Amino acid sequence: MAEQRGDGRGTGDVRGGGQDAGESRRRGVRPEEARAWEELVATARRTVSDGLVVGTSGNVSVRVGDTVLVTPSGVPYDRLRTDDVTGVDLDGRQVLGALVPTSELPMHLAVYRTTGARAVVHTHAVHATAVSTLVSELPLIHYMAAALGGPVRVAPYATYGTDELAENMLRALADRSGCLLQNHGTITHGTTLDQAYDRTAQLEWMCRLWLTAASVPGLSPSLLSGEQLAEVQEQLRGYGQRR
Ligand SMILES: [Zn+2]
């Protein structure tokens, strides 16, 4: 719940601006950023309507050039407006808007600095978060793990919003487009908001599948081998080229 702190809309002073030392860096919103913001808000709202996020317990970002547009901290997505565009540079300095960016900014920026990602989705989706408390890697219950780059790792726990959590996340994300965060949630990235969102939905679905299969008393689910997954990864590569 701590991620809901800092609702700039409620405090007045943040929204009014003028007190922040970073104010001078703020600039106008470019047309491509305005379009990206609309897509970001739609994606954020979808995480709520699809049950992946409760309240404001997740965040979404999209990269436009060297600017990262990101959901502000603690503002319900249905209250986000066209002129609420919130953006930072790759060092986290605010360049757009007056609302306080999400407290999970270090994770988002770490992904953009180290990968070619253009969008990041972070949630506390219930099944994925449950799995993050049980194992250090999601067992290979389904071949869709290949769509995330391989077996999904769990980043060791660290306090939300810290550089330590961002570092743990980066290690878990090596050669993957998604991972779980222990006792916290999910993070996925992609080349578009839709792709990052879909990866989160797939990850949550796989976690739900494993929990369901693993919960049958007296039985344990069969798992795929690394070889079987590699074959699927090979096929997925071909799939992309045939279109
Ligand atoms: Zn979180």
- Low-confidence parts lasting 5 or more residues at pLDDT below 50? 1-19
Secondary structure tally, helices: 8
Please report the first level of CATH classification, the CATH class: Alpha Beta
> What percentage of the residues does DSSP assign to strands (E)?
5-15%
Q: Any idea what the radius of gyration is?
A: 18 Å
Please summarize the sheet with the most strands.
8 strands, mixed
Q: Judging by the overall fold, what is the CATH architecture?
A: 3-Layer(aba) Sandwich
Number of individual domains: 1
The topology string of helices and strands comes to HHHEEEEHEHEHEEHH
Total beta strand runs: 8
- Kindly report the name of the CATH homologous superfamily: Class II aldolase/adducin N-terminal domain
Give every kind of bound small molecule, once each. Answer: zinc ion
CATH topology: L-fuculose-1-phosphate Aldolase
Biggest sheet strand order reads 4-3-2-1-5-8-7-6
The average pLDDT score comes to 90
What class would the helix/strand composition place it in?
A: alpha+beta
Write a structural description:
The chain has helices spanning 8-11, 13-16, 31-49, 105-114, 126-132, 163-173, 193-214, 226-242; strands at residues 59-64, 67-70, 87-89, 94-96, 119-123, 154-155, 178-181, 185-190. The chain is an alpha+beta fold. An eight-stranded mixed beta sheet has the order 4-3-2-1-5-8-7-6, with helices on both faces. Helix 4 packs across helix 6. The longest helix is centred in the C-terminal third of the chain and has 22 residues, at 193-214. The radius of gyration is 18 Å and the shape is globular. Bound molecules: zinc ion (ZN). Zinc ion binds at residues 3, 104, 122, 124, 160, 184-185.
